[in-house]
Write a structure and sequence with these properties.
353 residues, alpha+beta, three-stranded antiparallel sheet
Amino acid sequence: MRRENKGYNAFMIFSKFLNNCIITPDIEGTEYGYIKVTYNQGSKPNPNKKGRWYSNKSIGLAPLCCCVRHTICDGILVDGVSPYKSSVLKELKDEIKPCIDTIINLPEYSSTLEYVKKTYDNNIEGKTISRILRMIENGILESYFNFFYNEGFINKLNDGYEVSLIFDGFQIRSEHNITDDTLNECRKYALDKTGYDIELKIKPFDNPLILPTNYNIVLDKIPSIVDKYTTYITEFYDKNIQSINNIIINFTDHDIFKLISVFSKDKIVYDPNTERWFYCNLFNVWKEYKDPIIIKAIVPTIIHSLFERRNKYYVEILYKISLITNTDDPLLKLYGIKESESIIEFTFRIKKK
């Protein structure tokens, strides 16, 4: 779950939203906007071009933590999903195995089975049936989309549509009056098109965050401050390569915060006596907050970008050589290509570090 993923940070996704935001005349001057999202079938390169629709570059509502998505969408969108996600299937494993074996060996799924066998060494049946079920699920979801679009519940917006695909469901504007009769008609439409009869329901946004009353004042300034620091990245990187190298080698929280302090020109500080954070805003006015909200915004965006630049530098160097034996650069020694290691394996290893 994303809430247990220490690397998850909504600020990084929000920054992508800001860079892909569309403001139409009817919402200009409000706090609303459209997010331009493109979708790809499969979270990884998929030669069959089948399966679930995933938002490209994690730009969209689907990658957000559930409570964050509920906070944004409540009162704006309606979420329609299938209600069946039962753990009982695990208990029926032995009983349904013959069914799985029959399905994955059907002629219409031969290319999927062949791809899994060539790509993986274990759990061939599980990986194959998973792909087949996602293909079926996606076909049903696409029929739902076609029904709601044909009925006028999904509007065109420029070269796209006002809809958000969320794996096994989708979200549309809440201004439309979606009734049980509407859902039942959609169910019949999907049954006719796919042969699968799935009951539909509207899923409530019942897990929103409780935001402070001044949330719009606080958050409105953070993107501007991040944008301000973004323009300074290249210059800072060129002047502080050695410090970045030292952090990559030693990697301590203290070293990282020292880098942030230098980067922010000592305009982000923590006072242990008051246990509060202080930062200087765009108007050179010092602000204080109990939580390190600025740090949470800067680390996954600005600071991450600095290390990505350094990572790209070493990857480009090591692409040109097959094995490092003599070098005075401590990072090249640390990240040198191991014997029999392909450049792809090396790239994943260095990015992980």
